[in-house]
Amino acid sequence: MRARCQVELRYVLALDKTGLFTPLTLAEKQRIEDALQQFSDEDYQRIKVIENTTRHDVKSCEIFLREKIKLADQNLIHFGLTSEDVNNLAYNTLLKAYLECEHLSLLKKLVETLCHLASQWKNIPFPARTHGQKASPTTAGKEIAVFLNRLLRQYRKLKDFRFMGKLNGAVGNFSAMLAAFPEYDWMTFAYNFVESLGLTPNIATTQIEDHDTWAEYFNITRQINNIVLDLNLDCWSYISYDLFHEEVKAGEVGSSTMPHKVNPINFENSEGNLMLSNSLLTLLSDKLCRSRMQRDLSDSTVERNIGVALAYAYLALTETMKGLQKVRINEAKCRQDLENSPELLAEPIQTILKTAGVEDPYTLLKRVTRGKAITRDELFQFIDELEVDKNIKHKLKALQVTSYLGDAVRICERVLDAAKKEFGL
């Protein structure tokens, strides 16, 4: 309601500058500025009282403003507009404010939290898993850098994102405005007014703005949610494997009957909220791009849940950050898991053997390692039995699981550099 009133009043000020109407007095302009700056609970309640009679939200705002501002020419308020001119601009200014003041800053905080962990852990060997099974080692920092890199891409999309708006009358043709002042360039006026609100003008619409940019915004938000959900699931799994653990806080309990437990509740809370958010965002993205011909009201009820969908996402990201701030890496366990898994060297061994011209080394290693836990001595015995140069055997025996990390450290550093450049860290 506040945003609707603000759009209506800014529109009056814009009309005043056209020279088509009797100029506003200084007192009228001051009353408008005062109303733009302050919207009270009493103002809202008065609008709702009016709405009990009109059964129309925007018309109730118009009547309220006529009462409150007391313009000499009351017809300036809502001149030539349809309610969706006001509604779409009100919603878009609210979404723009949320994006700029809340969403981007929250995502930045999450990225900074991940930067801190990736920087701390970039050199720590980590037992990666694919399909839930032990895989070639990586570093803990690079694991975090993957999520950091994904979120950076979405952050850039959000930072450059622009909502659209329309101000063009009942069926989008400026018809009422042109009927009153056919010589005036209402299209340019509307462009300038929409841009003054920080929005991109949408030139061709029906009675409603098409909401395609809303769907784009919701889908970017949903993608961020999915990335964070993926992060939550990995952190939860790593905690269950004792590769991560959560810092214990005095006074907290993890179970009413099992005193030892420290539950990863922040990641679990975030997971649930993200799923709720994504369900609503999917519905919003699908529904709000469709309207029967010029307009139907089925979107109006759905729009009232935009804040709910975004709030679940906001809450989820704050919970993930709380979880990340409590997470510590069990470096000793990570190294132990790797050192106890010499079979992870099967990949580099067979790759080196390929360069030595050994026929089908993959199958040789598969026979020795697939589905088996082998010791380092058994691996050395396999190497000794190979018909290759002794220098190749020496090279193979020098391989260490904890140092078989490829370019993981440099990849992590590249992502960190990109994040630091983006945020000036």
Give structural notes:
There is one protein chain. The protein is mainly alpha-helical and 425 residues long. The protein has 3 domains: 2-79, Fumarase C, Chain B, domain 1; 85-335, Up-down Bundle (Fumarase C, Chain A, domain 2); 336-403, Orthogonal Bundle (Ribonucleotide Reductase Protein R1, domain 1). It has 18 helices and 8 strands. The chain has helices at 2-16, 26-37, 41-54, 57-69, 83-121, 140-159, 175-180, 186-196, 212-240, 265-287, 298-303, 306-326, 331-339, 346-355, 361-369, 376-384, 390-397, 408-423, and strands spanning 125-126, 129-130, 133-134, 138-139, 164-165, 200-201, 244-246, 327-329. The strands form 4 sheets. It has a two-stranded antiparallel ribbon with strand order 1-4. A two-stranded antiparallel ribbon has the order 2-3. Helix 5 (83-121) packs antiparallel against helix 6. The radius of gyration is 31 Å and the shape is elongated. The mean pLDDT is 93.
CATH architecture of the largest domain: Up-down Bundle
User: Mean of the pLDDT scores?
Assistant: 93
Helix-strand pattern, N to C? HHHHHEEEEHEHHEHEHHHEHHHHHH
Q: N-to-C terminal Cα separation, in Å?
A: 39 Å
